[in-house]
Amino acid sequence: MATYSENQILIIADHASNYVPEVNNKLGLSNSFLNNHIAFDLGVKELSLDLSNRFGCRVIQGKYSRLLIDLNRDLDDPTIIPEIVDRKIIPGNIGLSKSDVRLRIKKIYDKYHHEIDRTIKNEKVKVILSLHSFNPIFKRKKRFTEIGILSNEDKNLSSIVIDQLRLLKLNVGDNKPYKGNLIGDSMYKHGLRNRLPHVLIEVRNDLLSNSTKIKRVSRLLHKTIVKSLNKIVS
Question: Residue 122 is part of which domain span?
Answer without folding.
Answer: 7-231
